[in-house]
Amino acid sequence: MLLISDSDIDNAVAILRSGGLVAFPTETVYGLGADAANPSAVRKIYETKGRPSDHPVIVHVADAVQVANWARDIPDAAHRLARRFWPGPLTLVLQRARGVGDFVTGGQDTVAVRVPSHPVAQQLLRRFGGGVAAPSANRFGRVSATTAAHVRQEFGAAVECVLDGGAADVGIESTIVDLSGGKPRLLRPGWITAAAIEEALEERVIAAGAGAPRAPGMLAAHYAPLTPLALAERDLLLELAASLGRQGRKVAVLALSSARPLDPVIWLVAPADPAGYAHTLYANLREADEAGCDALVVERPPQTPEWAAVNDRLSRAAAGTAAQDEI
Ligand code: TXA
Ligand code: MG
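^ thats the input. predicted complex w/ threonylcarbamoyladenylate below
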């Protein structure tokens, strides 16, 4: 069901043209968008998110042809990945074209671009015609928003225009591949796996490490819920939850099975497949926050390649906790 009318899109485009912010759905998570060619509009994103201004943002465009407005020396690998995965949940880091502002790239010589597939994002980008700079629509360091209601919880009246395109399909942020330096590098795992990228490129992909371009999404402490979070194997999970409960803590559990051998405040069950798990992950973290729990114990998913993106987000969420609180 389409929740968005033509006049909603017209209104959003007018806001973008006048330098305002529009939150919009993508297939991964909601984005907080501004005209990527307008420095003061992009500055508003940073102010609204509370994000440091040297962190680069992704430029969203309607189709691969438009990437030439933002990037130069586009390698064959980019064409291959674009043909295979766009529109879709993949971001490419490329050498930036002349004229692309430091306010978009965080002062780097590269730019991140993505062609999202969500029909509302597509309509917005087509009608706007230019690039829309958009980080995930959440306050800096917090979990991404996967529904319009989550965006409103994050920003309230500070973001007037929120296009409601329903719950985001994928539920976690796009896979980021850096093609700016010769060898392809995976900067952020996502729904499109490293193996799928390697298959399309017929080439190995390097995992990000020292010397990779700065990517704040790569900070250990990122994507943190407000509730302190700990990861545990299934049997330890039950022990940990029980002992926290005995200390009088209000415990939430995020498990892979509904078998409920103890009685925490909330027992959330996540789908036991990686796509289903990712789709519900951020909503589950928000639910634990809203229930006012003071500890969230998460059953560690399998440590296999299909779960890499989910495990990445969970370990960052746990690291975010460790930085602030003891569980
Ligand atoms: O799925 C997504 O990618 C969502 C939707 C809205 O498209 N966007 C998103 O944006 O997750 P954000 O800003 O939350 O994360 C973008 C990541 C950041 O970690 C940023 O550092 C990295 O992309 N990035 C952006 N430009 C870059 C560049 N030139 N080089 C390296 N990393 C870059
Ligand atoms: Mg983000």
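The radius of gyration is 20 Å.
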